[in-house]
Design brief:
about 200 residues, binds inosinic acid, binds magnesium ion, single chain
Length: about 200
């Protein structure tokens, strides 16, 4: 029987990388007070850890979006379910994303936010599935260049499950997960510290 999933980025890899990102962002935004915007729900876990590594007077705001079915979906158009609480006009905006895949959703969101005339707008994404990109997009800060595989954990879900998994898993057998959505529950319940040699090559 093949393994359903294994750890792609362990919690310690994630912690270290976020520390580095926080340091870089702190330096780049010195003297400013950026607004960090998270797209619910996946990005909220990353945001929570990232803001504590940014040594600046940041503020946070949240947006919730839902995708359209059909033709509009392929354009990346989304409906804003919950908009930002505050006006971002004149602000330095940093969009915090868990993962950028095709980039369609994010590029649409950027165009919406740009129309509100912020002073600047940049993206920090923990995972960048760059090989899947359709919409041209500049991601200024990226945690990891993610291989083309379905991932769960650390905010990323499969059918709303696994957001609370401390590590990021690569799912190799999606069919097994379709048949048993709780198949990866041991990774949460036992929260094992996975040895480095359990990770895929590369
Ligand atoms: P995009 O418009 O294709 O870039 O969609 C990005 C969104 O799709 C992310 O914010 C995630 O919610 C979701 N997504 C993309 N890839 C994965 C994955 O491997 N696991 C879980 N969610 C994913
Ligand atoms: Mg999702």
């Amino acid at each position: 029987m093949s393994v359903i999933a294994n750890v792609l980025y362990g919690r310690e890899d994630i912690r270290r990388r976020i520390e580095e990102l926080g340091r870089t962002i702190t330096g780049d935004y010195e003297g400013r007070a950026p607004v960090l915007i998270s797209v619910l729900k996946g990005g909220s876990v990353f945001l929570a850890d990232l803001i504590r590594e940014v040594r600046l007077p940041v503020s946070v705001d949240y947006m919730s979006i839902s995708r359209y079915d059909g033709a509009a979906e392929s354009m990346g158009r989304v409906r804003i379910v919950k908009d930002l609480d505050d006006d971002i006009g004149g602000c330095d905006v940093l969009i915090v994303e868990d993962i950028v895949d095709t980039g369609l959703t994010l590029s649409y969101l950027i165009s919406v936010l740009e129309s509100r005339r912020p002073a600047s707008i940049e993206v920090v994404a923990l995972l960048d599935k760059s090989v899947r990109r359709i919409a041209p997009l500049e991601i200024k800060y990226r945690g990891f260049d993610c291989p083309d595989v379905f991932v769960v954990g650390y905010g990323l879900d499969y059918g709303e499950r696994y957001r609370n998994l401390p590590d990021i898993l690569a799912v190799h057998d999606l069919q097994a997960l379709v048949e048993d959505p709780d198949a990866l529950l041991p990774y949460i319940v036992e929260a094992p510290s996975v040895p480095p040699d359990d990770r895929p090559e590369g």
